[in-house]
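FAQ: What does the model actually see?

It sees only this:
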Amino acid sequence: MGISDKPPAIKSPLVCSQRLTLTLMAFLGTLFVYVVRVNLSVAIICMVRSDVTVVNGSLSNVTNVTSHTDDSCGGSDQALTADRLREDTGEFSWDKGTQSKLLVMYFYGYIFTQVPGPLLGNIFTFSISGVLCTHGFDNGWGSIFYLSGLFYLLWVMAWFPVTSDTPAKHKRISAREQNYIETSIGKSSVAKVLKVPWLSMFRSGPLWAIIIAHFCNNYINYTLLTSLPTFMKESLKFDISQNGFLSSAPYLTQFVTSLAGGVVADKLRQRGVMSTRVVRRSFQAISFWGSAVCIVLAGQMTCDQRYWAVVLLCLCVGFMGLNRSGYTVNHLDLAPAYAGILFGITNTAATIPGMIAPLVAGAMTPNRSAEEWRSVFYVCGAVAAVGGIIYVILADGELQEWAVPPDVSGNTGMTYPADGKEEEGSHSKDGEESEDCDIAHPISVTERNQLQTKA
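And it is asked to produce this:
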């Protein structure tokens, strides 16, 4: 029985199913990860006194600061007075360098959990944190962290009782749903990976294309995640209550472009309009170069043109959403059997910008002027432009020779489940029946790529 002759799965209702519960829990987990990642970016605005400068290496307070006295782009007098009161009564006298170091601390812990082991979160956090900063308890900023931690803790308490490693181990799954899942994807759709080809991986040009693209994308992403609220305040002169909502707007745009881009990319491949390689290169090039142009233009906007700056930032982050059809899924094209390992490698490298970007932004904006913020965005634009060039040159969309794992019998070849049933007389090495893998037929790299092309 061939690949296409696999018996159809008996459908199980999605509503009230355990797979829907798992999807919801994974969604909430990802959301809270991003809540914890970006909440300090907004909270720090109302935590720190804004009238702090550095004189002869020591902190001092000043009463005449350009960013405070320039009312040409401000809102109502009442709003400006309220903002200044919050700024002047901030609890911490941290200079720009100290603030930047605090913003990178998350990434020092994050980088060590990649190899061993999104968007709505950004929208939610930026929007709610701005409101809490103004109206929350414990001086506003404290409520951001208390509520973030509380909801994350509730999620953890719910995760363990409602999830399991496999359908067979789940305590509440119905027999029909378990059969549907196991029939649809198999107990093991790919042969066990016996050896990871580390040397061949790191010699692979297409893998380096993903590493560099991931790094460059995250440099822009982390610059905006950690510094966008500060830019909105210092350069565009938005008050705190507006800041959170407007900082979330670009990520709402990215949510839309990510979904739309994925649909378009898949249609282009399915209909044979473009090969996987061309789709990945094209979408990533548009993502990088479009965001580069928009972020540089956003930096040129004055506070009198601040709403145009928000539009350009929305377009910038919207273009970045197209990377979901570029390097983000390219791991699966190159090496489906090792996709998790590859993502761990590229995401580890891509965490480094989180340690660098906030420090660079802080070092380049000591006086908090619009001209200094333009320089920050010039750097982001250059990183994106270079990343696009390298990816277009090195990227591929086909299964790599080194990515074909040996099957359980020791033969080399990609394996696919045949008919979901074990062949009579099939035994493991120790004579016991093998329960780990369905019977599968090896398939060569050439055959695999031909199947992808036909699909």
